Amino acid sequence: MLTLATNPIFDAYKQSDYFGKTIFITLLLLSIITWVLFLQKWFYSRTARHMGEKIQDTLQKKRLTPLNIDLSSFQLHPFTAIYRTLKQQTIELLQKNKSVAEEREVVYLSHSDIDLIEAYVVTTISKQSKSLEKNLFILSTIVSLAPFLGLLGTVWGILLTFSELQYGATVNANATVMGGLAMALGTTVLGLVVAIPALIAYNLLKSTHGNFNAEMDNFSNQLLASVEMQYRKVDVK
User: Fold this and answer.
1) Using alpha carbons only, what angle is made at residue 212 by residues 210 and 216, rounded to the nearest 5 degrees?
2) Cα R_g (the chain), whole angstroms
3) Is 214 exposed, middle or buried (0-12, 13-18, 19+ CB in 10 A)?
4) How far is CA 32 from CA 37, 148, 181, in A?
5) Mean pLDDT across the chain, nearest whole number?
6) What is the model's pTM?
7) Dmax of the chain from CA atoms?
8) If DSSP codes are grouped into helix, strand and coil, which group holds residue 60?
9) Number of Cβ atoms within 10 Å of the Cβ of 229
């Protein structure tokens, strides 16, 4: 097992000049950002999925009274934001219809009211979807940037090697060549080591978020169906 002192990447870093060390450090920082961002979003997605299942169970139990669902235990969940929007718009429309209805007349929602509620819900889903994908562009940027930084280190290491050989580094020619090649190959390897996990993380999170968006759509459809069943006026011909 390689120790830090005998690690080829660390050895290449030690033999690099200041510019080469900057490339190594930048790639290391990109790797840290990748893993921190991935783990943060992965754990949040997993938690949100489990909480979403509990919220959907609650909805099934309260489907006959869709405006009386208690989601106080899930304040920050996207489903809660969707429910609040639906509840707020439904109550406002019922109150508006009540203000123009005759005394003791039962208040219902019209077809246009349901469409309006659905439009507000769709807008909320869009906002929640954007929130879920916030900072995800960083991973796609790292996927593209890391290999190019590795390539930059490769070209710089080879250029540095030929430059030192050209200007009379004959005594330590072998060490010069080895140091330049070590830097060139080291940055290439590190660039790929950073980019490959970032690519996997990005695709995995995109897939996870896509599935969660579908769950938000299903949840909103269930809510709208419950509201429509309870409050929409039935046209009797």
Assistant:
1) 115
2) 29
3) exposed
4) 8, 18, 26
5) 85
6) 0.81
7) 104
8) helix
9) 11
Full DSSP string of 179-210: HHHHHHHHHHHHHHHHHHHHHHHHHHHHHHHH
The Cα-based distances of 65 to 60, 81, 92, 225, 229 in angstroms read 10, 18, 17, 12, 10
CB neighbours of residue 146 within 10 Å? 25
Percent of the chain whose pLDDT exceeds 90? 42
Handedness of CA 52, 53, 56, 61 (dihedral sign): negative
Q: Which residue has the tokens 């968006």?
A: 213
How far apart CA 219 and CA 83 sit, in angstroms, is 9
DSSP string, 133-182: TTTHHHHHHHHHHHHHHHHHHHHHHHHHHHHHHHTT--TTHHHHHHHHHH
Intra-chain end-to-end CA distance of the chain, in Å: 82
Distance CA 105, CA 35 (A): 60
CA–CA dist 171, 177 (Å, integer)? 12
* pLDDT exceeds 80 at position 148: yes
Q: Which residues of 168-195 are buried (b: 16+ CB within 10 A; e: fewer)?
A: eeeeeeeebbebbbbbbbbbbbbbebbb
Q: Give me the half-sphere count of Cα atoms (radius 13 Å) on the Cβ side of residue 173.
A: 7
Tens digits of residue pLDDT in 93-134:
888 887 776 665 667 888 888 899 999 999 999 999 998 899
